[in-house]
């Protein structure tokens, strides 16, 4: 579970990588809902319908190969007014891949995903990789990890953990992948209702 420890402890990264966006600087009650790893038929369409029903916009960090497989879902994300970002073509781990291979994979994804936003899968990126991407991309991290992919927490625990951590300017990370579906489908609509009741607005990553 070493990987998870890193994902939950962005403090050290913040010091090492100050050019990344971890949270938006604002005095207003704004939050930034993000979904990684889609688009996939199992949950992206559901996510879009749910967001439309609540009149909320979000940012989708897409895997290039999924956009290649499901171009209609990708188009629908954009048509509905959401924002897309690049999440590599094959969901590569930055630490396990050399910089050239990593950058080539991002470029391959850019042929399918029209965006100047990038989020590294697993939050893993080497300094050399970031250096290549930063002139072209804004690298969007997060300050609230929902843990929706965790099989050891219930949907209610997932929701409560996010509610506890959310603050002004928070970037909240959920997933459009199969293992996150159960927690995500419960937590996101309840989270939206709770935050709207507290007069938060949902903004797009930029
Ligand atoms: Zn991912």
UniProtKB/TrEMBL annotation:
<dbReference type="GO" id="GO:0046872">
    <property type="term" value="F:metal ion binding"/>
</dbReference>
<dbReference type="InterPro" id="IPR050248">
    <property type="entry name" value="Polysacc_deacetylase_ArnD"/>
</dbReference>
<dbReference type="GO" id="GO:0016020">
    <property type="term" value="C:membrane"/>
</dbReference>
<feature type="domain" description="NodB homology">
    <location>
        <begin position="29"/>
        <end position="98"/>
    </location>
</feature>
<dbReference type="InterPro" id="IPR011330">
    <property type="entry name" value="Glyco_hydro/deAcase_b/a-brl"/>
</dbReference>
<dbReference type="GO" id="GO:0016810">
    <property type="term" value="F:hydrolase activity, acting on carbon-nitrogen (but not peptide) bonds"/>
</dbReference>
<dbReference type="InterPro" id="IPR002509">
    <property type="entry name" value="NODB_dom"/>
</dbReference>
<protein>
    <submittedName>
        <fullName>Polysaccharide deacetylase family protein</fullName>
    </submittedName>
</protein>
<keyword id="KW-0479">Metal-binding</keyword>
<keyword id="KW-0378">Hydrolase</keyword>
<dbReference type="Pfam" id="PF01522">
    <property type="entry name" value="Polysacc_deac_1"/>
</dbReference>
<dbReference type="GO" id="GO:0005975">
    <property type="term" value="P:carbohydrate metabolic process"/>
</dbReference>
